[in-house]
Amino acid sequence: MEELEVKELEAAETKEEAKETEVSQEVSEEVQAEEPKQEEAVLDEEALQIITNIADKLVEKKDPNSFYFASLGFENKQLFCTHLLGYCYYKGLGVEKNLDDADLLFNSCFYEIHKLADEGNSLAQYYTGFHYLNGYGKLDRDDDEAFDYFAMSRLQGNERAQVQLFSYAER
Question: What is this structure's pTM?
Answer without folding.
Answer: 0.69
